Amino acid sequence: MSIEYSQLSIPKLGTKTVQNAEEEKAIDREWYNNPGQFPKPSAVVTILRGDVKPWSEEWKWFFGAVALVLGIIVAAKMKKKRKKKGVVDRCKLCGRRGELQRSHFLPAALYGMILRQGGAEGNPMVVTREITVQTSRQFWAHLLCGECEGRFNMNGEGYALARVHNADRFPLLDLLNVAMPLQATRELALYSGSDIGIDVDQLAYFAMSIFWRASVHRWTSASGGQIWNPLGNYEEPVRRYLLGETPFPNEMVLVITVCTDFESQSSVLSPAIVRGDRIDGMGLIARGIQFRLYTGPDIPEALRRVCCVRSERRIILVGDCRRISLQAFANLHANRQP
Ligand SMILES: [Zn+2]
Question: 149: CA distance to ligand 1 center in Å?
Answer without folding.
Answer: 7
